[in-house]
């Protein structure tokens, strides 16, 4: 947690920031259409972006592929996230540390 904030508050704030950044990216693209650029040049620029801007770009690209289902999907994920955070906050489930999570996931996905 950050400064005594619940996981729900931190998650909600991060989600709002990513949405604001995605809206800013959309507005910037409308006001200043990009010049034709190769995918290699785009990748070089994207890897230099700060994390929050990269996440906003990812969200924008995913939204472009959803064809109007964004609000429906966001609402469903928002409900799922709130339910999971509430389960942790209420003590119904217990989280695990990243140090425990990482090897478990590596073992799970190395079998594929």
Could you characterize the architecture of this molecule?
- The chain is mainly α and 112 residues long.
- It has helices spanning 7-31, 39-46, 51-66, 70-89, 98-110.
- The model has no long low-confidence stretch (mean pLDDT 81).
- The chain is built from 5 helices and no strands.
- Helix content is 73%, strand content 0%.
- The two termini are 34 Å apart.
- It has one domain (7-110).
Briefly, what is this?
By secondary structure, the protein is mostly helical. The chain has one domain (7-110).
Topology readout:
Layout: H1 7-31, H2 39-46, H3 51-66, H4 70-89, H5 98-110
Helix pairs in contact: 1-3
Quick tags:
112 residues, mainly alpha, 0% strand
Mean pLDDT: 81
Number of helices: 5
Summarize the helix and strand pattern as letters: HHHHH
Number of strands: 0
How would the global form be characterised? extended
Radius of gyration: 18 Å
Question: What is the end-to-end distance?
Answer: 34 Å
- The number of domains: 1
Flag low-confidence runs: none
Helix content: over 70%
Question: What class, by secondary structure content?
Answer: mainly alpha
Major β-sheet profile: none
The fraction of residues in strands falls at: under 5%
